[in-house]
Design a protein that fits this description.
Number of helices: 19
Helix content: over 70%
Number of strands: 2
Structural class: mainly alpha
């Protein structure tokens, strides 16, 4: 929710201006490293090995492994950030890039890139806390970033009306300051609750070698996945249409809300459980966690996709139509969102299935799936962007997400055609039937609930449609005795809560 507030303020401040798009591109680069080194593959390689060290007979200290990994991260990212900053300074000083928008993007990247040092180290510490069944620091980390950026945007864009370049520079520094606090929080919790003591440790161990071997295979997959996002935004940046990057970014942010609330949250909780179960040889426990996660993610993300497809235009009008972001922007953003919305269940399920492979220490299949996704995205983007612009790039993203999901399902031995209809596994037929009921109710409900174009009228219409959608979706699930977890229908779990 705070991410939405941040984005509302961002587009109210920058609209689809050149400087705003330059910041979005500059912020994409450190996020690529964050998701690859921090929250992505390194975390996935580290957690199973760290979880195995929880056994009483372990000969190596879990904290020694943590220090070994974090020490190497600090050294590598510190040197890399310094080099990126020097290159950005030189390119700004000597005008390496003649085009104004590239000139601005490189300049801002020189500031924002330092964020990777703190957020990547923070993600590893959060991973260690998750294994210890402590989730507060990890859950609160995005809040810190959003609060810092909200305060910066409110100061530069709402309370004052600074030049766009000044706004973007202050916003970039706010990202780095947030990263420092994001690192401090899990650091403090590990020290206070588990008596972890930090020290530089560049020694070697068998456990570190295992993390390294898992990481390097998976890193290519994660890098490809993030390059996929970067390719789409770079191609959008090359388009003559102003606002292409903004429309893709806004759609991605709205898609990330259900992904973050449902898919990533469930993956964060269930990934250490699956890793621990496999470490103990408990195949039944692993499969129980695997299918429980798939079932819950499918149940929550399919209606999210339908909702954004049907009422995405109302959401964008209500949230983002302020100041610099006007009517024509809303129309284009809504068209892009209507396509990108269908990637929600595909990305959500792919994310969780990838975690299941990581818990098995299998990094090769996610790598192959990521490469297929990149190839499909690149070819489809180049074929479609000339004729359809940013709409073509949105379709390319959807095709890439589908082929990645299809390949992961094909390679997962626990999934079969029967899995999709089994009561205790995915139970997709009940979800699809409930989704159809919801689609009909929201589609026709939108036609008869037009209360006006004012913000309160739009909010009232959205509220009615959301409530109607929820009732029309969950009621069929309850009546059909959809199992949220093994042997326990949805209504049982709801009442228990």
């Amino acid at each position: 929710m705070l991410g939405l507030v941040r984005d509302i303020l961002f587009f109210a401040t920058f609209g689809t201006s050149l400087i705003g798009e330059a910041f979005l591109l500059a912020f994409t680069i450190p996020n690529l490293f964050r998701r690859m080194l921090g929250e992505g593959t390194l975390s996935s390689a580290f957690i199973p090995v760290f979880a195995n060290l929880q056994k009483p007979d372990s000969t190596v200290s879990e904290w020694k492994l943590l220090n070994q990994v974090v020490s190497r991260l600090f050294l590598f990212l510190g040197v890399l950030s310094a080099l990126v900053a020097l290159f950005s300074l030189a390119s700004y000083q000597f005008n390496f890039f003649q085009t104004p928008k590239w000139h601005e993007a490189i300049s801002l990247n020189g500031i924002t890139f330092f964020y990777v040092i703190f957020i990547c180290a923070s993600a590893i510490l959060v991973g260690a806390l998750n294994v210890k069944k402590s989730f507060l620091a990890g859950a609160f980390s995005p809040v810190i970033l959003n609060v810092f950026m909200i305060l910066a945007l409110f100061y530069v864009g709402i309370a004052n009306r600074f030049d766009f370049s000044v706004c973007a520079t202050i916003l970039s520094f706010s990202v780095v300051l947030a990263g420092i606090l994001q690192l401090f929080l899990p650091w403090y919790e590990l020290h206070k609750r588990f008596h972890w003591k930090w020290n530089f440790n560049f020694s070697r161990s068998a456990e570190l070698s295992e993390v390294g071997s898992l990481f390097w295979v998976g890193a290519f997959g994660a890098a490809i996945g993030q390059i996929n996002i970067l390719v789409s935004r770079m191609l959008a940046y090359l388009l003559d249409d102003q606002g292409a990057v903004s429309y893709l970014y806004m759609s991605a942010r709205l898609v990330e809300l259900p992904l973050g609330v449902f898919a990533i949250a469930l993956s964060t909780i269930l990934f250490p459980r699956m890793s621990s179960s496999l470490g103990k040889g408990d195949i039944k426990g692993y499969k129980s966690s695997f299918f429980r996660g798939l079932r819950m993610i499918t149940m929550l993300t399919i209606p999210s996709a339908i909702g954004l497809f049907l009422v995405g235009d109302l959401v964008i009008k209500t949230l983002f139509e302020w100041k610099e972001f006007g009517g024509e922007n809303v129309s284009m953003a809504s068209e892009v969102l209507a396509i990108v919305a269908w990637t929600i269940p595909l990305y959500a399920l792919s994310t969780f299935i990838i975690k299941s492979f990581h818990s098995q220490k299998n990094m090769k299949v996610p790598l192959q799936a990521a490469f297929i996704s990149l190839l499909v995205n690149l070819v489809a983007s180049l074929l479609l962007m000339k004729a359809y612009g940013v709409i073509g790039l949105a379709w390319a993203n959807l095709f890439a997400a589908f082929f990645q999901f299809f390949y992961l399902c094909l390679k997962n031995d626990d999934l079969s055609v029967g899995s999709f209809i089994s009561q205790n596994q995915l139970c997709a037929h009940k979800i699809l039937l409930a989704s159809l009921c919801m689609y009909v109710v929201v589609f026709y409900g939108k036609k008869i609930t037009g209360f006006g174009d004012g913000k309160l009228a739009l909010l009232a219409q959205l509220s009615v449609l959301i409530i109607g959608g929820m009732v029309s979706y969950f009621l069929p699930l309850i009546l059909s005795k959809f199992y949220l977890s093994e042997g326990k229908p949805l209504l049982f779990r709801a009442n228990r809560k």
